[in-house]
Every structure is written in C-alpha cells, then in structure tokens.
Amino acid sequence: MMQAGTVQAVQDMSDTAYAVSSVVKVVLTFTVVMVVVALLTLLERKISAWMQDRMGPNRVGPGGIGQPLADGLKNILKEETHPGEAAGVFFTLAPMLSIIPALVTFAVIPFAAPMPTRWGVMPMVVADLPVGILFLLAFSSLGVYGIVMAGWASSNKYALLGGLRAGAQMISYEIALGLSLMSLFFVVGNVGLPQVVWTQQRMGTWFFFTFAVSFAFFWISSFAETNRLPFDLPEAESELVTGYHTEYSSMKFSMFFIAEYAHVLTVSALLATLFLGGWDIPFLQRDDMLGFVDGRWVGNVPALWITLVTFLSFAIKTFVFIVIFMLVRWTVPRFRYDQVMDLGWKIMLPASLAAVVVTAATVLALDSAGVTFEQRALGFVPVYGGVLGVVNVAMLAVVVWAMDRGRTLSATGSLDERRARAKQTARLRAIELQTAERGES
Amino acid sequence: MIILFWFFAVLAVSSALLTVTRKNPVASAIWLIATFFCLAAIYTLLGAFFIGIIQILVYAGAIMILFIFVIMLLNLGNDYEPDIRGHVWKVVAGGTSLVIAALLARAFSGELPAPLGHVAGPASLAAQTADRGTVGVIAIPLYTDYMVPLQFTAVLLLAAVVGAVVLAKRKV
Lengths: 441, 172
Known about the structure:
The complex is a heterodimer. By secondary structure, chain A is mainly alpha-helical. In chain A, a hairpin with a 2-residue loop joins β3 and β4. Chain A has 14 helices and six strands. In chain A, the strands form three sheets. Chain A has a two-stranded antiparallel ribbon. In chain A, strands 3-4 form a two-stranded antiparallel ribbon. Chain A has helices at about 15-50, 65-75, 90-105, 130-155, 155-190, 195-205, 205-210, 210-225, 235-240, 250-275, 305-330, 335-370, 385-405, 415-440, and strands at about 115, 120, 290-295, 295-300, 375, 380. In chain A, α1 crosses α10. In chain B, about 75% of the residues lie in helices and about 0% in strands. Chain B contains seven helices and no strands. In chain B, α1 packs antiparallel against α2 and α2 (about 25-45) packs antiparallel against α3 (about 50-75). The interface of A and B includes residues 130 and 160 of A.
C-alpha cells in the first residue's frame, strides 16, 4: 500500500527556495484568512437571517456580497471614542493582543498535500513546527489577554465583569481541551499536525470515531474558547451590555470582531485537521503522504492535482464546522454562568481524565497484541482504529447518559408528563384542603 | 542567530526591570508576560522547542492569567497605592541579583569551572532531539530516570491542592 523510501522524482527544497516559498505562503495565507473572515461576518448574518426567516443584508452588491467591505469602511471612518477613565496604553493594546494570537495560530495547520514544484516538494503548511499542536494551544490561550485587558482597561464595571468571565471560562475549558488531545498524542506519538493527518491516513479511520470522546470534548471546549454561544458569557448582552467591548468603537471594536471570526476559522480548521483527517480524501489511498523524514520521502508520490483536490477537501471540512458553529449560535440559548463552570470542572475534567486512562489501556492492549495501524480485518475494516473507536463511542454514550440522567434523552414528552403530574398533585391537594376545611366548619 | 539572541536578551532584561519598577500591578504583570515571552524565544533559539512552548503555555498562558485575575479582583479602584516595597527589601533584592550576576560573570569568564553542558550542550541536545524527538528528549528521561522525583512532585502538588481546598472551603 505505502511505499516508504526515496522516490526518484521527489526532492527536498533548497534553503533559498524554502525561504522564498515561506514568504509567499505567509502572505497568501494571511490574505486568504482575512478575506474569509470578512466573508464569515456576512455568512453569519445570512445564516441568522435564514434561520429567522428574514432576508439578511442584500443591498451592497449582488446578494449583499459587498457588505463586509461597506462594514469595514464604515468602521474605519467612524469616530473613535476613548473613555476619560480608560487606562491609556492598555486600552489600545487590548484589541491588538486579541487579534494577533487568532491569526498566528493558523500558521501550523497543514491545508493541503505537499505540492511538487520545480524547486522541490513544498509542504503546504506555513510553519511545520515540531511542537505543532502545543504551539496552537499556547497561542490560542493568549487570546484571552486581549479580552481581560480590554475589560480592565475600560474602567467600566460591565466590561470588567465580561473580562473576568472570559478569563475564568478560558482557564476552565483549556484544561478539558488539553486533556482531550492527550489520547491523540500518545497514539500519534508526535505533536506535529502533519503527523496527525498521516496517522489518520495509515489507520484508515478518522479520529472523530477513533477518539469520539476527545472529539466531543474538544468541540464543546472550542465553543467556549471562541466565546460563541452557548458560551458567550463574556459578552452576554442581556446582562453586561456587550461585556468586554462595551467601551470600544470604530476599528478597535471591529478588531475584536475580526479576532472572533479568525478564531472560529482557526478552530474549525483545527477540528477538521485533528478529527476529520485534515486534507485527506476519504476512501482514497493515492493521497496518503507525510513528507521528508530524515531526508527520506514517506508516503506516495506527490502530484499537483492531489494538492488541489486535498485543498478542496480541507476547505469543505472546515466550512462544515464553521456552518455548525453558526447554526448552534442561532439555535441554543446561553448557559447560566454556574452551569458553564459546572460543565467544565465537574463533568468534562473528570470524564476526559477517565477517557485518557481507558484509551491508554486500550492502546496498551492493542500494542501488546501486536496490532499495527495498517492492519485490516476482512480486507477493509481497520482493526486498530476500529477497536479504539468502539471503546470511545461506548465511553461517550456513558458520559452523555450520565450528563443527561433522563432529562431530555429518555422521552421528548417527559416535560409534559411532569407538568401533568404536577397539575394532578396540585388538584388532589386542593380537594384535600377543601374537605379539611369543610370538616372543621 | 546571534542578533536574535541579543535582541531577545536585551528585551528580556529590560522588561524584567520594568516589571519591578512599575507602580501599577497590572502593568508589572504585563511586563512579566513579556519577559516570559523573551525567555521562550531564547529557549527556542537554543533548540529547545518543547521547553520554549511550555514556557508560553504554562507561564505566559495559565499562570499569568491567574495572576492578572487575582490582581484585578483584589486591587479594584486603588491601582496606585504604595505596597510593601520597603527600602530594606529593595536592598536585599538588588544585592541578591548582583551576587547572581557576579557569579555568572565569573563562570563565563573562566575563573570558575564552566557550567554543566556549556560546551557540549548544544551539540548533544541536537543529537538527542534527532534521536528521540522534541518532546521525547524531555519525556523519556523524566519518566524513566527521574520517575521517583516526578511522583513525589505529583504527591506534593496534590497535597497543595487539597490544602487549598480545605482552606478555601472550611465547611465541606
């Protein structure tokens, strides 16, 4: 299946070519991310309009496609207010601090199969760091500084509350986020994102099944990390005006928005990479490749069409997650603050710890039995990923059942039943009272 | 490389100085974060990617956000009140840092024996990283040679956590 070893036509890039291609990739990725972020603001408004049976923005350009441009122009031209009590430098620094981590994190996500060029094979990732996912976790956790600082520097009690909430929420959910990735780490044996994609290709199953518990927890935490509904406590407009950016106006306000959408984009791309096979094309072995390891090419021979198709595959997967982010935002109500903390500390932290232990035991059993990633039962059923997947889905079922305890899943009519029972009890008590009164008189 | 090292070294020292001279505790904390970042950059320049990123993840990310959290909660409204920085403490702190600087200067000028791994360090680190991977170079010794100290540290931390809970919540 896989031909590891040096392939004649495949050669590594020279240092100059590497430097030039890196600059090109940085500029291209930055441009694409910024344009996509602008379009995401429009997409969000269109989706919300669609879900609420409205038209949405439709004045600027065909179908409202020019709306982000008009919004941006408006935000630049608006007056910039600066509260007298605000803490000068920090007030200006805060939006910058929130936007930089959101953009930097995209650098380590591989967005297509390596591309063969005249100057050697170009890996389609801006920076293939040896600490890929850790880099991502580190920098996405820094985004909260912008929010906390904005809340504090505004000298506004609503903003301060928003900032504090953001801080507490991020700390709580980062733990579950990191723990949920632990199982992935010890199966992949590396923290680089290209290796995660490569392992999924070798295993033949994507990790959303193999690590179902991690997938669920990572996804839930990513809602909290991006401050989107149902976890948008830091900007809960019904309680805190608009939370940490209450005092911000014009382009500074806009920067918080860009940061939020850039974060959504990055997290969706990350979810696609970690759990949906990244740029992998399902049911196709031809695109399975890793890159150069110690000067030797690992995987199949790269080709231009593979790069293009895999990029399309990656884009579709990312888009799916983005759309789900938006659908969720316009579907569910906001959690209460204590519920958010309970979910993070009392459910997700112990459950993800338990999941790590069980997954580790399964991995140990599989490794002791000598099962390899490439092994297939009946010629097509992946053994390694399959066993891990079954164990994980069972664990996820237990967690969901324990969280629910018959409140919503047991029967859709349970609430009605309870209401009817309550009514019945009240009626009986009223009759009892009446008879008691009659007996007294 | 050497330019980058000096850039981050100067930045680290100056932000560390700003950390101790700022009147506003939040500003101090922000400069401390800047110091941690510069240290992480220096670790990365030395080839210790994992230590560098953990520096950001744990110190700049988790611990400092707790610091800022506490400062903001406890110090509302009186940001500029003088705190416990008496003259004695200033002298003690300044003296300690001078002694450390003098020791370092003597070590690097060759009067004292060179620090462990100062000469062979980078090459051996590169060889081990190639052998075991960026994370393995820390993890494999930690979980094999230093297993018992690691376990003791874990027990110590657990005791600290339990103690904190008991102190914070007397009526359990």
